[in-house]
Specification:
The protein contains 8 helices and 15 strands. The protein is α/β, with parallel strands linked by helices. It has 2 domains: about 130 residues, Rossmann fold (3-Layer(aba) Sandwich), CATH 3.40.50.2300; about 90 residues, Beta Barrel (OB fold (Dihydrolipoamide Acetyltransferase, E2P)), CATH 2.40.50. The protein has a 5-stranded parallel sheet, with helices on both faces. The chain starts with a strand and ends with a helix. GO terms for molecular function: DNA binding; phosphorelay response regulator activity. InterPro entries: CheY-like_superfamily, LytR-like, LytTR_DNA-bd_dom, Sig_transdc_resp-reg_receiver.
Length: about 250
């Protein structure tokens, strides 16, 4: 049985999620429903939950501020929010789960289904990544959580050389020679790494501009990366790449 707490300032949202959990996630036992972050902090101390369904936007103290009040987070977090925002991008960057309201039952079941698999994964580090992203910490300090088939790999962004599309998955190549197959599309990775010094130079390749050692001219040309791999540049992306390299 998974012990859960629900924290949301909107009564109808609490009621709806409670019904959905009872109907579609019988393995979840809802121990408390809280309308404020302060109540949530007390319920966490009282019940020691396995998972907290946490609304992001709440008056007085939002969900992120509430987590910042905790010295030790030993439970899983599934964020809930009414709209896609910059906060959602930060959550994706840390590979934590979130549910958009109105909550879809299939997405709820999927999120709950992951909980038991993630119990021994680096949640604290994922939350650190989330807070760094929200607080606009320098790129050099940022890591990204990569969801692999075995769990998560927490990797400094600057260690990524390139990302290559593999259908609904992406191969991520690192400076140390390792590569990971992650369960994200290249488009999703591109969105997560926006503003981090990466460029999509081909429909199948996203590269770290700082890891280019040579550009070879041609119809589109190709780049040689720091690991000596060559990546073709599409004609439509050639001008953008050359402008960035000229800077």
């Amino acid at each position: 049985m998974i012990k859960a707490i629900l924290i949301d300032d909107e009564k109808h949202c609490r009621e709806t999620l409670s019904i959905q959990l009872e109907r579609y996630c019988p393995q979840v036992k809802l121990l408390a429903e809280c309308s404020t972050a302060s109540q949530g902090l007390q319920a966490i101390a009282d019940y020691q939950p396995d998972v907290v369904f946490l609304d992001i936007e709440m008056p007085v103290m939002n969900g992120f501020e509430m987590l910042g009040r905790l010295s030790d987070i030993t439970f899983e977090v599934i964020f809930t929010t009414g709209y896609d925002s910059y906060a959602i991008k930060a959550i994706r960057f840390s590979a934590l789960d979130y549910l958009l309201k109105p909550i879809d039952k299939d997405e709820l079941m999927k999120a709950v289904g992951k909980i038991s698999q993630r119990r021994h994964n680096p949640l604290a580090q994922q939350l650190d990544i989330l807070m760094q992203k929200l607080n606009h910490k320098p790129v050099v300090l940022q890591k990204i959580a990569l969801p692999t088939l075995e769990g998560y790999e927490l990797v400094p962004v600057v260690h990524i050389i390139q990302c290559e599309s593999d259908g609904n998955y992406t191969l991520v190549y690192l400076k140390n020679g390792k590569k990971f197959l992650i369960s994200r599309t290249l488009k999703e990775i591109e969105e997560l790494l926006e503003g981090q010094g990466f460029l999509r130079i081909h429909h199948s390749h996203l590269i770290n501009l700082n890891e280019i050692i040579r550009y070879v001219r041609g119809e589109g040309g190709y780049v040689v990366m720091s690991d000596n791999t060559s990546v073709n540049v599409s004609r439509s992306r050639k001008d953008i790449l050359l402008k960035l390299l000229a800077r």
